[in-house]
Amino acid sequence: MRKILKKRLVVPVLALVVLVGMSSFKRDFFEIAKQIEIFTTLFKELNMNYVDEINPAELMDGAIKEMLDNLDPYTVYMNEQDVEEYRIKNSGEYSGIGAVVRGYRDKLLIVEPYKGYPADKAGLKAGDEIVQIGDVRVADFKDDAGELLKGAVNSEVEIVYRRMGETLKTTLKREEIEVDAVPFYGKIDDQTGYIVLSRFNKKASSQTEAALKDLKSQGVTQMVLDLRGNPGGLLTEAIAVTNLFVPKGETIVTTRSKVKKFNQEFRTRKQAVDTEIPLVVLVDGRSASASEIVAGALQDLDRAAIVGARSFGKGLVQRPLKLTYGTQLKVTISRYYTPSGRCIQAMDYAHRDENGKAVRLDASGYKAFKTKSGRTVYDGGGITPDLEVKVLRQNKLVQELLNNHVVFDYATKYYYTHQLQDYTGFSFGESDYEDFKKYVVERGFQYETEIEKILRKADEHEEMQLFGEQVKQDYNKLLQAIGDSKLTALDTYREELTKEIEDEVIKRYFYREGLYNYYLVQDESIKAAAGLLKNTTRYKELLKS
Questions:
Q1: For a surface tag, which of 124, 356, 414, 434 has the fewest beta carbons within 10 Å of its beta carbon?
Q2: DSSP state of 508
Q3: Percent of the chain whose pLDDT exceeds 90
Q4: Residue 135: other Cβ atoms inside 10 A
C-alpha cells in the first residue's frame, strides 16, 4: 500500500525539480505554480483522510527519491544523514570503526576492514555479517544502519556478528578515520615509479604530489599512475592532479549546461611538478568521472599513454544545492568535455528502452576528435586506452558475478579453508579455478543474456504458434544450449575472473597494502605499462601516431 501511495505522489512532485533551473522557472512559471498547488492540496487531503496513519516525512522522502529515479542515477535527494555522508566522502575523514560495509535488509556486511583501525584490531574480517549494533537489531532499523557505527572518538560500540554460521560479539572503540586518496606508492623497478590514486577527495592532489616528489627523489625517471577502480570525486582535485604533469594555463575540461553560469572552462593554475617525465595512466571499467577527466585530458594533450580497458563513461557533472532543513539536492548540472572537445558519457538517460532502462550510446555513432598532436580519439563510451590489457576487459559474465557478490563470497570461503603465508608466490591455479566453477554451480548463480531476453520475448509472440511443434522444440533446444554455454563461458573468461578472485583473496590475508605489493610483481597491467615505458620508441609512437 505504501508503494502505491508513493507512486501517486511521484507525478505532482516532479514539478519541483524544475526549480533547479531558473531559466526554466521563468518560462514555465504558471505550470510550476499550478503543479505545486495540486501537490500541496493532494498531500494535505491524503494526510487528513487516508484510512490508516501515515508518516508524512517518510512518504515525502520516498516520493522525492522515486521521482528522481526517472532522471539519471547521480541526481539524488540527500536528507541530513545523506548530506553528512557526502561531506565525509569528500573530506576523507570521519570517526568510526574503520571498515567498508555493505548494507542489506537484515544485516551489514564487512567488505573490507582498514588495517590498524578498530574493526581490524577487534578481529573483524571481510565477510562478517553484523546483525546488531548496541541494542539495535539491524533488521529492525529502517535507515542506514551503517551510520550507527559512527560516533564520537573514543566512544564504544558493541556489535553482534555472524561468521561462518557462528554468532560472535565484540566491543570496539571508535577512532578518527582518515581515508587516503593515495593508499600506496612504490617502485616497479629502479627507474619506474607507481602511484595508486583510489579516489578524488580533498587529499587527492596533495597526496599524489607528495608521492610523485618522493619517488623522483629516489631516482625514478618514469611513472605509472593507477586509476583503476577509482569512481571519481571532486572536479577541482581532478584538475589539480592533471596540473602536476601539464603546464600552467592548459585547458583541462569544459562544462556545458542549459544554465549559463554552469558553462565553465577549467585551466591549470599552478606550475607543474614535471611536464617531461614519461607517464602511463592505468584505467578500467570502474574508472569513472574525475578519473576520466584526468585520463581524458592527459590523452588529449598527448601527455600520457592510457593503458588498460575502456573506462566507465560518466561525463556528467553534479553539484549539491542546499534545500531547507539541512537537506540538499545533488543534481546533474552539466556535461563535461575533454580538451579535444569530446564528451565520454556512455548512457543516454534521456532515452529509455521498453524496460525503462537508459540506452547505451551505440559505438557506430561515436564522433572522432583530434588530440594535440593529431591523433584520433572518440567520444561516447568512456576513455579508450591506447594500449589494451585483455584481463581488464569488461563482459557480462564477469560483471554479473561481481554484482551478485559471487567472487566476494567465494573469497570468504577460500580464506577460511586455505592457509597463505606469502603473497609473492601466490597464484590461483587450475584446481582452484575448478573449485570456483563448482562453487558457482552450487550457488545456483544465473543470469539472463540479451539474446535470451529476445528469444523469450519471441516465444510469447502469437505468430510463434504458426511455425509448428518442430520449430517450438528447436527453439527450446536453442535456449537450453545457450544456458549450457554459460558454464563454458567460465572457461572462456578464466583470465579475467582469475584476476578478480586473486585481488579479493590477497586482500583477505595481506590487506590492500599487500595487494598493491603483489601488483608490483604479478599484475599484467603494470607489466604492460612498465614494458611500454621501457620501449621508448613505442611509447613515443603511441603519443604521436
A1: 356
A2: H
A3: 62
A4: 6
Query: Residue 279 pLDDT more than 90?
Result: yes
- Find the distance separating the first CA and the last CA of the chain, reported in whole Å: 62
And the C-alpha cell for 349?
538517460
Catalytic pick from 300, 379, 386, 523?
Answer: 300
Distance CA 72, CA 446 (A): 28
**DSSP strand pairing (358-360 vs 93-96):** unpaired
pLDDT for the residue numbered 451: 64
Contact 291, 267 (CB under 8 A): no
| Shared fold status for 93-178 and 184-388 | no
* Segment 371-428, tens digit of pLDDT: 999 999 999 889 999 999 999 987 888 999 999 999 999 999 999 999 998 888 898 9
Beta bridge partner(s), residue 160:
132, 169
DSSP 200: B
Cβ atoms of 43 and 57 within 8 Å: the answer is no
**Closest alpha carbon to 410 in 511, 500, 527:** 500
User: Is 289 considered catalytic here?
Assistant: yes
Does residue 447 register a pLDDT over 90?
A: no
Residue length, the chain? 545
DSSP reduced 3-state for 262: helix
Fold adopted by 184-388: 2-enoyl-CoA Hydratase; Chain A, domain 1 (3.90.226)
Contact 523, 296 (CB under 8 A): no
Whether residue 190 lies in the annotated active site: no
Query: What are 423-432's contacts with CB under 8 Å, separation 24+?
Result: 423/506, 423/509, 423/510, 423/514, 423/515, 423/517, 423/518, 424/518, 424/521, 426/502, 426/505, 426/506, 426/518, 427/502, 427/522, 428/498, 428/501, 428/502, 428/505, 432/501
DSSP, collapsed to helix, strand or coil, labels residue 205 as helix
Which of the following is catalytic: 198, 205, 289, 334?
Answer: 289
The domain locations on the chain are 2-70, 93-178, 184-388, 396-524
One of 107, 125, 203, 314 is an active-site residue; which one?
314
Known catalytic residue at 173 = no
Of 348, 460, 440, 451, residue with least CA distance to 400 = 440
